[in-house]
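Sequence, structure tokens passed on for absentees:
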Amino acid sequence: MSMVILAASAQTKTTYDWTKVINAIAQVESKGNPKAVNKNGNCVGLLQITPILVKECNNILKQKKSSKRYTLSDRRSAEKSREMFILLQEHFNKEHNVEKAIKCWNGGFYGRAWKSKNRYYRKVMRYYKGGD
């Protein structure tokens, strides 16, 4: 199994470096495997992206009047997965709150569902802080 470590990209416009957070989430979600698929087949890639998340990214891009769109197959690209993560964070997490970023990735961006995702948060934070 190959592990992908993502580095910051000059092509992605962001005011915050999400690399460490993305890499920690990738370890929890797929053990760093961009080819990972969950048992139901709906979560795919390094960050285990769902079709609904791809649709949400495309809705944000449409609101921004961008012609760019993501496809379901883009979930298998480590770089495009990173782009989608950042796009969602820049839209829903403008304050760049790491705890919110991690919990929302597991619990959704709408409402306060992310507040109750403490177990997932602790697991990701072990990788974020350099543990296993």
